[in-house]
Amino acid sequence: MAIRVLLVDDQPLLRTGFRMILEAEQDIAVVGEAGDGLQALDQVRALQPDVVLMDIRMPRMDGVEATRQITGPGRDGPAKVLVLTTFDLDEYVVEALRAGASGFLLKDAPANELVQAIRVVASGEAMLAPSITRRLLDKYAGHLPSGDEPVPDTLHTLTDREVEVLKLVARGLSNAEIAADLFVSETTVKTHVGHVLTKLGLRDRVQAAVYAYESGLVRPGAQ
């Protein structure tokens, strides 16, 4: 079945460009468009998309609040949110990730990256590109813990190996890369990631990365 995509952006020309790119793919169908967050909520309820390609800065309701209402607690619909951001990174992207977005994509990303991002998010994974994630979190280093704060009690529920895995997730490594780094199988890594998400009550790898930085487990700029 085709991946059902809703395009949300206040610039009609951008929506047209995204539609042309995505409709060229046999496994993707653009089911609707919206020009602001309020329209997006109506369209999500009416169309039940699999993925919402969400702009951040829009009139009436921005992409952060729309994301929160689409993916927040108690929401059991299928929609995943992929946030669109400008090259210099919106100051609201971290909030969108906290709100439940499954990842973010640069607005000037090549067409093949856009298509791949849609497929990855639709499959239940998170878009966590290491280079963009590092720049994003380093940009907000002043707003994140220094690492001197007490470790949250929830971290103590993790095993030593799960803590290692969480640190590597925060660096943006894929399951395959983590497996190679720890000399274990990719299946084992998937199991560890699943345990981390369950124990910490997190939605996906993106929220796990944000948690790792906010808790002080990983410091911005650290290698």
TrEMBL record:
CDD domains: LuxR_C_like (cd06170), REC_NarL-like (cd17535). Residues 4-122 form the Response regulatory domain. Residues 151-216 form the HTH luxR-type domain. Signal peptide: none annotated. It comes from the Bacteria. Keywords: DNA-binding, Phosphoprotein, Transcription, Transcription regulation. InterPro entries: CheY-like_superfamily (IPR011006), NreC/VraR/RcsB-like_REC (IPR058245), Sig_transdc_resp-reg_C-effctor (IPR016032), Sig_transdc_resp-reg_receiver (IPR001789), Tscrpt_reg_LuxR_C (IPR000792), WalR-like (IPR039420). The modification 4-aspartylphosphate is found at residue 55. Pfam families: GerE, Response_reg. The keyword Transcription applies. The keyword ATP-binding does not apply. This is Response regulator transcription factor.
